[in-house]
Amino acid sequence: SDITDRVDKMLLLFATGNKHKVSEASAILSHLGYEVEPLLIREKAPELIEPQAEGIEEVAISKIKQARELVMGTELEDSVLLAEDSGLFIDSLGGFPGPYSSYVESTLGLSGVLKLMSAESERGAEFRAVTAVCTGRRVITATGICRGQISGEISGEMGFGYDPIFIPDDGDGRTCGEMHSSEKSSISHRGRALKAVSELLNLPSK
Ligand code: IMP
Predict the structure, then answer these.
(1) Which residue CA neighbors atom 13 of ligand 1 most closely?
(2) Closest by alpha carbon to 63, among 41, 87, 82?
(3) Enzyme catalytic residues
(4) What is this structure's pTM?
(5) Helix-strand-coil split of the chain, %, nearest 5
(6) Rg of the Cα atoms in the chain
(7) Cα–Cα distance measured from residue 51 to residue 35, given in angstroms and rounded to the nearest whole number
Protein backbone atom coordinates (compact mmCIF):
# COMPACT_ATOMS: atom_id res chain seq x y z
CA SER A 1 0.00 0.00 0.00
CA ASP A 2 0.88 3.66 -0.07
CA ILE A 3 2.26 3.87 3.44
CA THR A 4 4.54 0.82 3.19
CA ASP A 5 5.75 2.11 -0.20
CA ARG A 6 6.81 5.33 1.38
CA VAL A 7 8.52 3.65 4.30
CA ASP A 8 10.29 0.96 2.31
CA LYS A 9 11.54 2.75 -0.75
CA MET A 10 15.08 4.10 -0.79
CA LEU A 11 15.29 7.57 -2.32
CA LEU A 12 17.83 8.17 -5.07
CA LEU A 13 18.60 11.72 -6.21
CA PHE A 14 19.40 11.73 -9.94
CA ALA A 15 21.94 14.39 -10.95
CA THR A 16 20.75 15.25 -14.45
CA GLY A 17 19.00 18.04 -16.29
CA ASN A 18 17.32 15.52 -18.60
CA LYS A 19 13.68 15.06 -17.50
CA HIS A 20 13.25 12.06 -19.81
CA LYS A 21 16.08 10.26 -18.05
CA VAL A 22 14.50 10.97 -14.66
CA SER A 23 11.08 9.69 -15.65
CA GLU A 24 12.50 6.54 -17.26
CA ALA A 25 14.70 5.84 -14.22
CA SER A 26 11.80 6.50 -11.88
CA ALA A 27 9.54 3.99 -13.66
CA ILE A 28 12.29 1.35 -13.93
CA LEU A 29 13.43 1.63 -10.30
CA SER A 30 10.00 1.95 -8.68
CA HIS A 31 9.44 -1.76 -9.47
CA LEU A 32 12.72 -2.54 -7.74
CA GLY A 33 11.98 -0.70 -4.49
CA TYR A 34 13.52 2.71 -5.16
CA GLU A 35 12.12 6.17 -5.56
CA VAL A 36 13.86 8.61 -7.94
CA GLU A 37 13.76 12.40 -7.75
CA PRO A 38 15.92 14.91 -9.59
CA LEU A 39 18.82 16.30 -7.53
CA LEU A 40 18.11 20.00 -7.11
CA ILE A 41 20.63 22.47 -5.73
CA ARG A 42 18.96 25.79 -4.92
CA GLU A 43 15.90 24.53 -6.82
CA LYS A 44 17.87 23.85 -10.01
CA ALA A 45 19.37 20.77 -11.63
CA PRO A 46 23.13 21.32 -11.22
CA GLU A 47 25.11 21.82 -14.43
CA LEU A 48 27.77 19.14 -14.34
CA ILE A 49 30.90 19.38 -16.47
CA GLU A 50 31.31 16.48 -18.88
CA PRO A 51 35.00 15.92 -19.55
CA GLN A 52 35.11 15.43 -23.34
CA ALA A 53 37.29 12.84 -25.06
CA GLU A 54 36.67 10.44 -22.20
CA GLY A 55 34.71 7.23 -22.21
CA ILE A 56 31.16 7.26 -20.82
CA GLU A 57 32.31 5.34 -17.74
CA GLU A 58 34.83 8.07 -16.83
CA VAL A 59 32.19 10.73 -17.50
CA ALA A 60 29.63 8.96 -15.28
CA ILE A 61 32.17 8.72 -12.45
CA SER A 62 33.11 12.37 -12.90
CA LYS A 63 29.43 13.38 -12.74
CA ILE A 64 28.78 11.41 -9.52
CA LYS A 65 31.89 12.94 -7.89
CA GLN A 66 30.76 16.44 -8.85
CA ALA A 67 27.28 15.74 -7.48
CA ARG A 68 28.82 14.46 -4.23
CA GLU A 69 30.89 17.64 -3.90
CA LEU A 70 27.77 19.75 -4.40
CA VAL A 71 25.79 18.06 -1.59
CA MET A 72 28.66 17.94 0.92
CA GLY A 73 27.90 20.27 3.81
CA THR A 74 24.25 20.69 2.78
CA GLU A 75 21.14 19.01 4.16
CA LEU A 76 21.39 16.54 1.23
CA GLU A 77 24.78 15.26 2.40
CA ASP A 78 23.43 11.83 3.42
CA SER A 79 21.40 11.30 0.25
CA VAL A 80 22.07 8.46 -2.14
CA LEU A 81 23.03 9.97 -5.49
CA LEU A 82 22.59 8.69 -9.03
CA ALA A 83 24.35 9.84 -12.21
CA GLU A 84 24.46 8.51 -15.76
CA ASP A 85 26.36 9.02 -18.95
CA SER A 86 25.03 7.51 -22.13
CA GLY A 87 25.32 7.69 -25.87
CA LEU A 88 24.71 6.19 -29.28
CA PHE A 89 27.62 4.25 -30.81
CA ILE A 90 27.32 3.59 -34.57
CA ASP A 91 29.43 0.65 -35.81
CA SER A 92 30.18 1.93 -39.32
CA LEU A 93 31.21 5.33 -37.92
CA GLY A 94 33.72 3.79 -35.53
CA GLY A 95 31.49 4.37 -32.51
CA PHE A 96 30.60 7.98 -33.36
CA PRO A 97 28.92 9.98 -31.84
CA GLY A 98 29.51 8.02 -28.59
CA PRO A 99 30.48 10.43 -25.80
CA TYR A 100 29.59 13.34 -28.14
CA SER A 101 25.98 12.17 -28.57
CA SER A 102 24.21 15.09 -26.97
CA TYR A 103 26.42 17.63 -28.82
CA VAL A 104 25.86 15.89 -32.17
CA GLU A 105 22.12 15.67 -31.49
CA SER A 106 21.95 19.45 -31.02
CA THR A 107 24.25 20.29 -33.97
CA LEU A 108 23.77 17.70 -36.77
CA GLY A 109 20.42 16.53 -35.45
CA LEU A 110 18.80 13.22 -36.33
CA SER A 111 18.51 14.12 -40.03
CA GLY A 112 22.24 14.97 -40.12
CA VAL A 113 23.09 11.57 -38.65
CA LEU A 114 20.84 9.84 -41.21
CA LYS A 115 22.61 11.81 -43.95
CA LEU A 116 26.00 10.53 -42.72
CA MET A 117 24.55 7.03 -42.97
CA SER A 118 22.76 7.44 -46.32
CA ALA A 119 25.16 5.34 -48.45
CA GLU A 120 25.75 2.83 -45.65
CA SER A 121 24.14 -0.62 -45.71
CA GLU A 122 25.85 -1.71 -42.45
CA ARG A 123 23.51 0.03 -39.94
CA GLY A 124 24.37 -1.68 -36.65
CA ALA A 125 24.59 0.53 -33.57
CA GLU A 126 24.19 0.42 -29.83
CA PHE A 127 22.99 2.61 -27.04
CA ARG A 128 25.19 2.42 -23.96
CA ALA A 129 24.61 3.77 -20.48
CA VAL A 130 26.87 3.78 -17.46
CA THR A 131 25.00 4.38 -14.23
CA ALA A 132 26.84 5.43 -11.07
CA VAL A 133 25.39 5.42 -7.56
CA CYS A 134 27.08 7.00 -4.55
CA THR A 135 25.95 5.94 -1.09
CA GLY A 136 28.50 8.07 0.72
CA ARG A 137 30.58 5.04 1.58
CA ARG A 138 31.01 3.73 -1.92
CA VAL A 139 30.49 4.41 -5.63
CA ILE A 140 28.93 1.60 -7.66
CA THR A 141 28.80 1.59 -11.46
CA ALA A 142 27.05 -0.64 -13.99
CA THR A 143 26.84 -0.64 -17.78
CA GLY A 144 23.81 -1.39 -19.93
CA ILE A 145 23.88 -1.98 -23.68
CA CYS A 146 21.03 -2.07 -26.20
CA ARG A 147 21.95 -3.34 -29.68
CA GLY A 148 20.01 -2.16 -32.69
CA GLN A 149 19.98 -0.66 -36.18
CA ILE A 150 19.85 2.91 -37.45
CA SER A 151 16.56 3.32 -39.29
CA GLY A 152 16.22 4.77 -42.80
CA GLU A 153 13.98 7.56 -41.62
CA ILE A 154 12.87 9.41 -38.51
CA SER A 155 9.88 7.66 -36.98
CA GLY A 156 7.93 8.11 -33.74
CA GLU A 157 7.39 10.89 -31.26
CA MET A 158 7.92 9.16 -27.94
CA GLY A 159 11.09 9.07 -25.88
CA PHE A 160 13.91 11.52 -26.58
CA GLY A 161 17.24 11.97 -28.35
CA TYR A 162 17.98 9.34 -30.99
CA ASP A 163 14.92 7.21 -30.15
CA PRO A 164 13.17 7.99 -33.49
CA ILE A 165 16.10 6.58 -35.55
CA PHE A 166 17.02 3.58 -33.37
CA ILE A 167 15.42 0.16 -33.95
CA PRO A 168 16.39 -2.16 -31.06
CA ASP A 169 17.22 -5.76 -32.03
CA ASP A 170 15.17 -7.05 -29.09
CA GLY A 171 12.05 -5.25 -30.31
CA ASP A 172 9.60 -5.89 -33.15
CA GLY A 173 10.99 -3.55 -35.81
CA ARG A 174 9.64 -0.28 -34.42
CA THR A 175 11.99 2.51 -33.37
CA CYS A 176 12.26 3.41 -29.68
CA GLY A 177 10.41 6.59 -30.64
CA GLU A 178 7.40 4.43 -31.54
CA MET A 179 7.45 2.56 -28.21
CA HIS A 180 5.79 3.38 -24.94
CA SER A 181 8.37 4.06 -22.27
CA SER A 182 7.67 0.77 -20.47
CA GLU A 183 8.37 -1.20 -23.68
CA LYS A 184 11.53 0.79 -24.33
CA SER A 185 12.78 0.44 -20.74
CA SER A 186 12.30 -3.35 -20.68
CA ILE A 187 15.08 -3.66 -23.29
CA SER A 188 16.96 -0.36 -23.11
CA HIS A 189 20.54 0.38 -22.11
CA ARG A 190 19.17 2.53 -19.24
CA GLY A 191 16.83 -0.23 -18.05
CA ARG A 192 19.67 -2.74 -18.07
CA ALA A 193 22.20 -0.47 -16.35
CA LEU A 194 19.71 0.50 -13.62
CA LYS A 195 18.68 -3.10 -12.96
CA ALA A 196 22.33 -4.10 -12.66
CA VAL A 197 23.13 -1.22 -10.31
CA SER A 198 20.12 -2.02 -8.11
CA GLU A 199 21.33 -5.60 -7.77
CA LEU A 200 24.77 -4.36 -6.71
CA LEU A 201 23.14 -2.00 -4.18
CA ASN A 202 21.34 -4.94 -2.62
CA LEU A 203 24.55 -6.82 -2.01
CA PRO A 204 26.09 -6.43 1.44
CA SER A 205 28.86 -3.83 1.26
CA LYS A 206 32.46 -4.73 1.87
P1 IMP B 1 24.47 12.54 -21.66
O2 IMP B 1 23.52 13.47 -20.98
O3 IMP B 1 25.83 13.05 -21.84
O4 IMP B 1 24.44 11.18 -21.02
O5 IMP B 1 23.93 12.47 -23.14
C6 IMP B 1 23.31 11.37 -23.61
C7 IMP B 1 22.89 11.66 -25.05
O8 IMP B 1 22.84 10.41 -25.71
C9 IMP B 1 21.47 12.23 -25.10
O10 IMP B 1 21.45 13.61 -25.22
C11 IMP B 1 20.94 11.57 -26.35
O12 IMP B 1 21.38 12.31 -27.44
C13 IMP B 1 21.63 10.23 -26.34
N14 IMP B 1 20.85 9.21 -25.60
C15 IMP B 1 21.15 8.63 -24.41
N16 IMP B 1 20.21 7.79 -24.02
C17 IMP B 1 19.26 7.84 -24.98
C18 IMP B 1 18.02 7.19 -25.12
O19 IMP B 1 17.55 6.41 -24.26
N20 IMP B 1 17.34 7.48 -26.24
C21 IMP B 1 17.79 8.33 -27.19
N22 IMP B 1 18.93 8.98 -27.09
C23 IMP B 1 19.68 8.73 -26.00
Answers:
(1) 87
(2) 82
(3) 85
(4) 0.94
(5) 40, 25, 35
(6) 17
(7) 29
